[in-house]
Amino acid sequence: MPRPLRYAVVLAGGSGSRFWPRSRVRMPKQLLPIVSARTMLQDTVARVAPIVPRKRIRVVTARDHARAVRAQLPALGRRQVLVEPEGRNTAAAIALATLDLMRDRDDAVIAVLPADHAIDDGPRFRADLRLALDVAERTDALVTLGLRPTRPETGYGYIRPGGAVRGTSGRVAWVEAFIEKPAPRRAAALLARGRVLWNSGIFAWRASAILGALRAHLPALVAALERALDRRDPAALAAAYRRLRPVSIDTGVLERAARVAVVRARFAWADVGSWAALEGFWRTGSNGHNAIRGRALPIDSRGCVVDSPRRLIALVGVDDLVVVDSPDALLVCHKDRAQDVRLVVHELRRRGLERYL
Amino acid sequence: MPRPLRYAVVLAGGSGSRFWPRSRVRMPKQLLPIVSARTMLQDTVARVAPIVPRKRIRVVTARDHARAVRAQLPALGRRQVLVEPEGRNTAAAIALATLDLMRDRDDAVIAVLPADHAIDDGPRFRADLRLALDVAERTDALVTLGLRPTRPETGYGYIRPGGAVRGTSGRVAWVEAFIEKPAPRRAAALLARGRVLWNSGIFAWRASAILGALRAHLPALVAALERALDRRDPAALAAAYRRLRPVSIDTGVLERAARVAVVRARFAWADVGSWAALEGFWRTGSNGHNAIRGRALPIDSRGCVVDSPRRLIALVGVDDLVVVDSPDALLVCHKDRAQDVRLVVHELRRRGLERYL
Questions:
Q1: Is this complex's ipTM strictly greater than 0.85?
Q2: What is the location of CATH 3.90.550.10 in chain A?
Q3: Which chain A residues touch B323 with a CB distance below 8 Å?
Q4: pTM for the full model?
Q5: B330 vs A313, A318, A336: nearest CB
Q6: What distance in Å separates the CA atoms of residue A117 and residue A85, rounded to the nearest whole number?
Q7: CB–CB of B341 and A316 under 8 A?
Q8: Domain A6-271 - what CATH class?
Q9: Predicted local distance difference test score (pLDDT) of residue A287
Q10: How far is A279 from chain B (nearest CA, A)?
């Protein structure tokens, strides 16, 4: 039997509002050069391309962003960009891509990569992902990549690893339990005990394994998508999506599946959830006290995150601020409140200031 | 003997750097609409015009700003704008204007008005100024307007009033002492004791009285200006100015003069020394917690001063910030550090970023 082919499915459907004013309704963060000079989507594809040939990469995105995705990835063929009529969280996106892939190859092994993660060590990432794909291929398990926590983060889910998967030198463990995003005190306790891992949301599995798990735990979702795809009618798919309940692959499948393994990954990783998370990625200013991209002049200021591609931003006597400039709007936010940038978006919508969305 | 004519001399020579990025080298604060929809210079002239006919108003400004001054005050004749070759503080500006006026009228009574003060009650201001002019005319004293302190301000000079000037119902007192800008503890003590007044820098005096005092206390300055004016040669005036030592009328003359009186003025006044001083002048935002001019969306933010004529500024979870937007540069400054905005200007100059000055 020939070795199964490896595919990558890039999830680029997010519509995050936490990067306003840089991100907008039509331009979510994965389509923006937030971490590096390339967009996060371009970085994600480039990062996996050395181990998955481009023609076996698929990108799943929402209708509103399909044009931008194609423009940013001109090397991908038309069929490689899968367009969801609207966002319904990761379970639907993964099911759609899996069903689509299995028409070509029912023995595919798939790496699932969110397009909005920052990873700063490509070779180490690929080594870990390769290990995950190997384990997925060999054991039929659903494999997730886990990261060692470095702070009591309340924005991530955690994984408690159990016994080692044989033949991995302890690098891969069977998952004993998933732990939902914890409250601050619990997050601190988890960090202190040191046994758990962050759930990265990066996965590897056989197409048959994830489809079996989807059928077992979300049968209505799979059935609805299969019926719609059989009709080869965009309107049918749109109608199916409209009725789908949004559910993540984690809560919908992984937390209920029997054979889930976790790779103890070693690359530096961040789910870039807010401007504050970028502090470690941007070069710091001349005095080293602030994370600055673009033009800024900090005076007696520390711990600030500044993004201003065009205009000069002068800071005087301020600490721990996020300042982001854009042509028509500017954000000044306390770094501890970076998650609440979405409140701006809500408020703009409430006031009918759609031009800023 | 006919009643002496009243003149107003508006001092518009400042080159303040504390209103960057709105103020620039060629556009100091008095030429900007910082407090109201008119520029501070226009406000100053409009405020005094009901009691001093426009043709008897003089504006003293620096060469760099003469064109803008004339453009903002088209009703003033060419000779009404007196151009100093360069700024040498208030004693020189007042001496120049006085010498110029005395060619026309040696019995003039002059009101001296800085162009960069904010005063929110025109009628009360004019009543107090009229009283000062009356006392100056009647007593030959140098009269200053004093304001009741409302906070332990360290940025103003103080005046200790002594005995009442006769016939003023206690509204005007002889000055017992001038107190230089105090340290914070002394400012608090001055405020607590309650007897002192802020020195507004608004004056009234006979032309002959101030010229006599200038001759007595700054004889070299007066002599140099007289020689230059006699030659009617701009180059001679420029050469004279180059050699002048900058000195304020307060330290150069008033603190040493014998007969100085102070009016207990009753209008609301602010020497608009920094962005923070504008808090009381701008309408507050919809929730009343921030002073906003232009477009801003404050969320969980208090005590901020925001000036953004064009772009939307969103604030999230920040307190006591000054945020000022301009086409090419933006300021984010802690309100307590508003005086230090000039550090930005110094730093820009040091780095050769002249385009932002």
A1: no
A2: 6-271
A3: 330, 332
A4: 0.83
A5: A313
A6: 23
A7: yes
A8: alpha beta
A9: 54
A10: 18
